[in-house]
Design goal:
The complex is a heterodimer of chains A (588) and B (551). Chain A has 588 residues and is of the alpha+beta class. Chain A has 18 helices and 19 strands. By secondary structure, chain B is α/β, with parallel strands linked by helices. An 11-stranded mixed sheet of chain B has the order 1-3-2-4-6-5-10-11-9-7-8, with helices on both faces. Chain B starts with a helix and ends in a 9-residue tail after the last helix. The chains are: A alpha+beta (588), B alpha/beta (551). Chain B: It comes from Lithohypha guttulata. Chain B: This is Glutamyl-tRNA(Gln) amidotransferase subunit A, mitochondrial.
């Protein structure tokens, strides 16, 4: 009976929600007005998120270019007087098989309202049933974030009315979270500016909580609600207000996501809506009197505002930037910052907009959930997860440099690209190349890194293609590299072959190479000699210089070699052998 | 109304018996019961079709309060907002009863979502005695269930007790109402009013019946996170056995299981394993052989108590003394604050629990004209339209006491009072609280506390109309403390004056409260007490209330 769409009607027209644009999801309650955009659904709004992101990025690039120099110069000057302080709350979907308080599947399904237990829809009389396996990714996340795990934590109800919140409250851990006092380390490698050095960002707490349902606009008066997501397990990661630049803010979110990925605590990142961030922004003068606000025990800060539901790293950076400038503008004009909740959207990356002020603030009326027993986490369990934790990014970085022989730059790039899927692909290719008896991955590490990062990377950029591990099967990639290393493919042939594979050719690499006549068939000695003699005949002047063994001999030899390579069949020639032949004729 | 005048208008005992016979003939079969029930619109909300061709001669029938989920009958909590709602699964209570061969024939009227003390706050109209001249309240919120049992339409009924909702109607209708320890009976499928206080209650005319239903329902249910698990149940059994550590002047009379020196941990672990087996023998033999220490808290002897109730209380205590029990003065100093704490905590939880009724997913659908208008509110119109006044009042109360500005002064304070109420009880009981490490039990303490169920006689419905909500809250003063502490409590019918014919305007309930987990000793003690008091026979007495229906 639960397998159907549940509809309800708005009298006013309502905005369209694309799957990831549920930006204002949590922002309404009975006390606040539902200010839905009364615009008709137009083409632009239905455009896929990816395209929107791209357009927005382009827009902001143009903007940056247009107001460089003058304005930016001023801004930079001005920033010297102001300290920006940012604290971030990250909500991440945990990688679990069931929901937080019901046995319903947490797997993604495109059948709406299929993965439901009565509790997920707040059916009267149903009760929450904590699912202990949810603790596995949650504990991994908290441990990887260097948190203290509390032996006893509790669940609270956070009340607000909205269509996607069937119970009228979200179950979260407000008073007693399960993990506290964590830390994330940021370096230049993570995208910090060099002058920021290494930063240690404190994590105030990590708490378990429920996700909401998904809402979708059906027509002007009807929203459809899919409760499949309702009750999914999330962790909310609350940082201390210790970030002081937009870049650092973005780097922090990126770093947290990569840590969550690395320990398998989360599998869907910001791009897929599995990770969302709320940022708290305040500014104060470096030299002036300290502010009188304190957040999470950090005192002397200015009045903060909160920007909700940011769903990309770029948006975190842009939103913080825009909000910082707005606050400084107000303060420099002698104004006062209001404690309020603000929104930010891709369509206008240069500014944040007011959603609601303090008086419109929802009173969440946190109440301990009377149905849910306190959560006791045994020390042994924590110790077990601590000892079996997969490596976090910093450990991976070391591994890539030491065991795979990559440079710090390449290693960093591999870690940060494509949510770690590129790294997995890289390791896959290397392991396919490395005989199982051999643990030394350096033999292939650099080579594979070169192909996957640079050759393949260049192709991705020029064709504006999104990375996907299935673009070129790892076996094809390893075969290609293997052929090249064995000398059966010259560099140019290998690149040509890569382009063929990139175009979607699924046949075995050897078959393609043969068909396209790319395999290197070495010229025999006779052919080399014939070619050398022809070049010698054509360039007597240079030959003379070489034979005199004067200062320019080396240069001219290279010239002759170049001529040889130019006139011969490049696919069949090796420079070393050509040079050897040339030398043996000219300098016996 | 003058009670004596009412008594004079009553029919003669012979007539009562005659009607009751008619009933008994009809009530032989479940189908007959259903036929009777279906004629009582305000008592029963929905009746169940009975499968034909089944041998029903020996079937027992039961009714459920309308806040227990059933798949074949709607469950509305007597609220407009849940009109037509059917659960996707029957409540655990319903399933256990069905598994035991007991047929659920009807869902009974109640105060909306359990909020009320007189079963008058129902979307389907108040529960009334069938007899026109009897305008006494049946009590609430499980009033429908109480009246079904009092009228002999079913042997048992299930209610829910949050702050006295089973005990008060039992007292006002002259039957037994048992509220077990919190967590004994699964709440799965019981639509909550205040989760931390809600218990499943049993109503019947004899303690024996209550015990048999309790035995069916007293099961650990993993689907209810607050259900007492097997470990806790073992600890409870063990705590009960520790009673024998208490120096007792009657100790020599104890021929039952007697365990001395339970201080050794290993020994106690072994004994707690055996406790389950020994329990029955232990309970029975102790009850017949030993004397009990009965606590009488000074704080319950309030000025507002109706004189007849005070008389009945004294009579009960003297009967108990005659049985060889010791009557002991005790003090439960937080009793007065308990009521205030209850009326902060219960509405707070209710405001949270009832937030789900938005008309989106179930219940009465939202009116498109009123939903989500631009002026801003999402569900206020729907909720305002379909919740009753008392429900709205308590939602507002709870919303206020949980709000950021009031939380510390109300909700937090009330939780502290609740803790003190629990401590009060732990200080006076001989048996330690089995689930609290710090609780040791008071060697000089008492086994049971005996107090009236309510300070007043059943009020007239016409009087209630003149009452303020606050007046009706005060009537819960004697039932709320046991609820806050999660203790087992039973209301048994007693009489003030043996010479007057028992009538429903003089129904008085006496409440027995035991330590947490002591449900079986409490029930056994209640059985002995009832036998000693020889109460009026409720079925014969109250069946006259149906005469106006002319079956």
């Amino acid at each position: 009976m639960l397998r159907r769409w549940y509809c309800h009607r708005f009298v006013s027209t309502a905005r369209l929600y694309t799957s990831s644009l549920c930006a204002q999801r949590k922002c309404f309650s009975t006390s606040t007005h539902c200010r839905f955009h009364a615009t008709a659904v137009d083409e632009a709004e239905v455009a896929p998120l990816r395209k929107q992101l791209k357009d927005a990025a382009r827009a902001s690039r143009h903007q940056q270019v247009s107001d460089t120099n003058g304005k930016d110069q001023l801004r930079r000057e001005r920033l010297k007087d102001w300290e920006l302080t940012v604290g971030i709350e990250i909500h991440a979907q945990l990688n679990t098989s069931s929901k937080l308080f019901s046995r319903a599947s947490a797997d993604w399904t495109d059948v709406p309202n299929a993965a439901l237990w009565p509790f997920d829809m707040a059916v009267p009389g149903s009760q929450p049933l904590f699912q202990p396996p949810v603790l596995i990714p949650a504990l991994r996340a908290a441990i990887a974030l260097d948190c203290d795990i509390r032996p006893r934590s509790k669940f609270d109800r956070k009340h607000y009315f909205y269509h996607d919140q069937p119970a009228g409250y979200q179950i979260t851990q407000y008073y007693e979270p399960f993990a506290v006092n964590g830390r994330v380390t940021l370096t230049q490698q993570d995208g910090l500016a060099p002058e920021e050095g290494t930063l240690h960002i404190g994590i105030k707490q990590v708490q378990l909580e429920q996700d909401t349902a998904r809402t979708q606009q059906h027509d002007e008066e009807t929203s459809l609600i899919d409760f499949n997501r309702s009750g999914h397990a999330l962790v909310e990661i609350i940082s201390l207000p210790q970030l002081h630049s937009p870049q650092a803010a973005a780097a922090y979110v990126r770093k947290v996501q990569s840590i969550l990925y690395a320990v398998d605590a989360a599998t869907t990142g910001m791009e897929l809506g599995g990770l969302r961030a709320d940022v708290n922004v305040s500014v104060r003068r470096f030299d002036g009197a300290t502010g009188n606000h304190s957040y999470s025990g950090v005192t002397g800060l200015g009045q903060r505002t909160e920007i909700k539901n940011l769903s990309s790293f770029k948006s975190v950076e842009d939103a913080v930037c825009a909000e910082r400038d707005r606050q400084i503008d107000i303060l420099e004009a002698g104004g006062k910052i209001e404690g309020e909740t603000r929104g930010w959207s891709l369509s206008n990356p240069g500014a944040t907009r007011r959603l609601r002020g303090k008086e419109g603030e929802v009173d969440y009326r946190y109440m301990p959930d009377p149905d849910i027993l306190p959560l006791h986490i045994d020390n042994d369990l924590v110790a077990h997860f601590r000892s079996t934790l997969p490596p976090v990014p910093d450990q991976l970085l070391d591994m890539l440099r030491l065991s795979y022989g990559l440079t710090a730059d390449d290693a960093g790039a591999l870690l940060n690209l494509d949510n770690g899927t590129r790294l997995l692909y890289y390791q896959d290719v290397v392991s396919r190349l490395t005989p199982s008896s051999n643990n030394n991955k350096t033999a292939f590490g650099v080579h594979v890194g070169n192909w996957i990062l640079h050759e393949l990377g260049a192709l991705l950029t020029t064709t504006e293609t999104e990375w996907h591990p299935d673009l070129i099967h790892a076996q094809q990639m390893s075969d290609l590299i293997s052929l090249q290393l064995k000398g059966q493919l010259t560099g140019p042939s290998a690149k040509k072959l890569l382009r063929i594979l990139f175009a979607g050719e699924k046949e075995p690499v050897s078959v393609i190479a043969e068909r396209e006549n790319l395999l290197f068939q070495s010229m025999n000695d006779q052919e080399y000699v014939e070619l050398a003699n022809r070049v010698i005949q054509d360039h007597p002047k240079e030959v003379e210089i070489v034979q005199k063994n004067s200062k320019q001999a080396q240069g001219k030899l290279k010239f002759l070699l170049g001529q040889m390579m130019r006139h011969g069949d490049r696919n069949r020639m090796e420079a070393q052998r050509a040079e050897k032949t040339l030398r043996s004729i000219l300098m016996p | 109304m003058n009670p004596a005048a009412t008594a004079r208008r009553l029919k003669s005992p012979g007539e009562i018996r005659k009607y009751s016979t008619i009933y008994h003939d009809r009530l032989r079969s479940a189908r007959g019961t259903r036929a009777v029930l279906s004629g009582l619109e305000n008592l029963v909300l929905t009746g169940s079709p009975y499968p034909s061709g089944r041998n029903i001669a020996n079937d027992e029938v039961i009714v459920l309060k309308d806040n227990f989920l059933t798949t074949d009958l709607p469950t509305t909590c007597a609220s407009h907002i849940l009109e037509g709602f059917r659960g996707s699964a029957t409540s655990m209570v319903g399933r256990l009863l069905q598994d035991a061969g007991i047929h659920i024939v009807a869902k009974t009227n109640m105060d909306e979502f359990g909020m009320g003390s007189y079963s008058t706050n129902s979307a389907r109209g108040p529960v009334k005695h069938g007899f026109d001249s009897l305008e006494q309240s049946v009590g609430g919120s499980s009033g429908g269930s109480a009246l079904v049992v009092a009228g002999g339409l079913a042997r048992f009924a299930i209610g829910s007790d949050t702050g006295g909702s089973v005990r008060l109607p039992a007292a006002y209708t002259g039957i037994l109402g048992f509220k077990p320890s919190y967590g004994r009976i699964s709440r799965n499928g019981l639509i909550p009013y205040a989760n931390s206080l809600d218990t499943v209650g049993i109503m019947s005319t004899s303690v024996k019946d209550a015990i048999s239903i309790y035995r069916i329902l007293n099961k650990y249910d993993p689907a209810d996170p607050t259900s007492l698990d097997l470990n806790s149940r073992a600890r409870i059994s063990h705590a009960g056995l520790s009673r024998s550590r208490v120096p007792d002047h009657e100790a020599s009379n104890q021929v039952g299981v007697r365990v001395i020196g339970l201080r050794d941990k290993k020994e106690s672990a072994r004994l707690s394993l055996e406790a389950g087996m020994r329990w029955k023998a232990y309970g029975r033999q102790y009850l017949t052989k030993r004397s009990w220490r009965i606590g009488v808290p000074d704080e319950y002897n309030i000025q507002e108590m109706h004189p007849w109730i005070r008389i009945a209380w004294l009579k009960t205590l003297s009967v108990l003394q005659d049985m060889g029990n010791d009557i002991v003065h005790i003090s439960l100093p937080t009793t007065q604050s308990a009521l205030s704490a209850y009326y902060v905590l219960a509405p707070a939880e209710a405001s949270s629990n009832l937030a789900k009724y938005d008309g989106v997913r179930y219940g009465i659908p939202r009116d498109a004209e009123l939903a989500d208008n631009h002026e801003g509110v999402l569900y206020a119109h729907h909720r305002g339209q379909h919740f009753g006044d008392e429900v709205k009042r308590r939602i507002l109360l709870g919303t206020f006491s949980l709000s950021a500005g009031a939380m510390d002064n109300y909700f937090i304070q009330a939780q502290k009072v609740r803790r003190l109420v629990q401590q009060d009880f732990n200080n006076v009981f001989t048996v330690p609280h089995p689930l609290l490490e710090a609780s040791t039990g008071n060697p000089e303490g008492v086994d049971f506390i005996v107090v009236p169920t309510a300070p007043t006689l059943p009020p007239l419905l016409s009087e209630l109309k003149r009452q303020s909500p606050l007046d009706s809250y005060i009537n819960d003063i004697f039932t709320v403390p046991a609820s806050l502490a999660g203790l087992p409590a039973i209301s048994v019918p007693v009489v003030a004056d043996d010479d007057l014919p028992p009538t429903s305007d003089k129904n008085i309930g006496m409440q027995i409260i035991g330590q947490f987990g002591e449900d079986m000793p409490l029930l056994n003690f209640a059985r002995d007490t009832v036998e000693a008091i020889d109460p009026p026979r409720p079925r014969e007495t109250d069946s006259r209330i149906w005469t106006a229906r002319r079956f």
